[in-house]
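Researcher: I've been going back and forth with a colleague about how Protein phosphatase 2C domain-containing protein might be arranged in three dimensions. Neither of us has a model we trust, so I'd like an independent prediction. The organism is Streptomyces monticola, in case that matters for your notes. Sequence below.
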Amino acid sequence: MHQLTEGAAMSTCPSCAEPLESGDLFCGACGYDLSTAPAAAQDHPTIAINGAVARAASSVEWPPAPEADSSDTPAPVHLPGDLAGTDSDGGELPPEAGDMRHTDPTTGTAAPRHTDPTTGAAEPQHPVPQHTAVPQHAVPDESAPQHAVPTESAPQHAVPDESAPQHAGPDEPTAQSGLSDFDDPPAPEGLADFDEPSTPSTPSRAAARPDPRTSAPTPTPPAGTKTGGKLCVACRAGQVDRDGYCENCGHAQPRERDHMEQELDAVAAVSDRGLRHHRNEDAFAVSATALPDGSPAVIAVVCDGVSSATRPDEASLAASQAANESLLAALPRGTHPQQAMHDAIVAASEAVNSLAADPGQAMEHDPHRHQNAPACTFVSSVVAGGLLVVGWVGDSRVYWVPVDRSAPAARLTEDDSWAAQMVAAGLMNEAEAYADERAHAITGWLGADAYELEPHTASFKPDRPGVVVVCTDGLWNYAEGAGEMAAAVPADAAQRPLHSAQVLVGHALDGGGHDNVTVAVLPFPVAPQGAGSA
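Model: Here is an independent structure prediction for Protein phosphatase 2C domain-containing protein. You can compare it with whatever you and your colleague have in mind.
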C-alpha cells in the first residue's frame, strides 16, 4: 500500500518496460537510470513493481574464418581432437586418450600450452564455459590488439580466468568472456589463442588432463554440499556473491523473507513475496502464552511495509517484533487484552520511529533513493479468556469466519484509507470507492511522519467456534467481502490453521499476486493444549 501523500511516479521502466515501484531511481531489472526519464503523468497508488527477469544474452557476430590460400575457399573447420599437434618442444605427442590440444589450421603447428614455470609440467587448459559460442580454430584479426578485451567485431580465442566472477550483479559491469589477465606478454604471431608462451616442459605427460570442451561436464554437487559458499538455486554450480546473485549464471537468489511459514499449536501464519514485487515488505509474529489463571492466550501480529517509504521491510519487521514482545510481557501479568493491545501498538510505533533516527543506515540501504521515514501498517489479534481482541492502524484487516458456514462471517476492522473515508462521508458507496485508483492510499500508518498515532482496538465475544483471519491487503484484494473471505477459507481451518493459511496465500497468488501476501489463522476458542510460550 501507499501513503496518501505519495507523489506521481512512472509505472514501467522506459528501457525494459518492467513495472516500477514509486520512488525508485533505478530499474530493478535492467538498472536503467530513471532520473533521466520524464516522470509519469499520473499517480497510480497501487504499483506493481518488477520481479526477477532473465536477461537475454547479447548476440555476437563472429567473423568468417580466413582463407587457407587465395582460392576464395574458407579454411576448414576442425573439432578439437581432429589434429594431433605437437608438444611444447615441437615433438610428437604420445597417443593418450582424451589429450586434445589447440592447433593452428593455417600452419598445422600446435599452439603452446600453459606450463608451470617451477616444475615445467604442463598445466591443463582452462575450460571454456558451455554456454559461450567460441569458434574452435578461428585466427584472430591481426588488426586487433592481442591482449585487450575483445570486441564483438573481433572476438578472440581466449578463455576466462576462473578466479574472476563470470556474472556480476546488477550494479556491476559484466566482464566479457574471453580475457581476464591484462598483464600477459603478447602471444607469438600466428597463434590461434591467447595462451601464455610455454616454457620447456618435461617429457612426461602423465599430468595431462582431457580437454574440458570434449569431456563430460563436472557433476553438480548435491544440495547441501559445503563448497565454501552458498550454491545457486538455479544452476546448482555457481557461488552466490554478497549481493545475492550467482557468480556463474547471474540468477538472483531468493531472499529468506520471500516465503515464510510458522505454526504453533493454535495459530499459524504464511507470508509470500507475491508475483510482482521484488522483495517481501510484509512481516508477521505469532506466539502463545498463558494468563495468570493458566488459560491460554494466542497472539498474531501482521504488518505491511509502506512501499513509498524508505526501508519498508525493516519497518514491518520492527513493528511486528516490538508488538509481539509487548503482548507477551503484558498478558501474563494480568493486563486486560484490549489494554495490552493498545500498548503493543504504541510500542510498535516507537520501534518504527527509531528507524528514522538512523539516517546513516538508511543511506547504506539505498544511497540513490530519496530518504523519508520508514512506515508500515499494523493489525493484530489476541484470543484469550473467551475474548477476541483486535487492534489496527492502516488498511490491514481481521475477519471472523464461523465454523458453521450457515452463520454470517464478519470483518472486524475498518480501513484507514481514502476509500474508507469516502464511504464514511457518504460520498461513494463501497464498490465505487474501492474501484477508484486512490482506494489504497492510506490515511493512517506507523512511522515518524504519521500525522497522529490513533490506535484502534476492539473486543468481541463470539458465541460459537470459528477462525480469525488476520491479513494484509495482498490477500483481501482477492476476497474483499466477509462472504468472499469465508468462501476462500477451507472448511477444516479450525483443525488445520497452517494448511488454511497456505490455501489463502495460494488464493491470492492464483488471483494475480500483485502484492506481498501475509495471513495468520487463529482458531477460536483456543484449545487447552494451545497454551505455552514461544
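Researcher: What would you highlight for our discussion?
Model: I'd start with this: Residues 144 and 286 are 64 Å apart (CA to CA). After that, consider the following. The longest strand covers residues 296-305.
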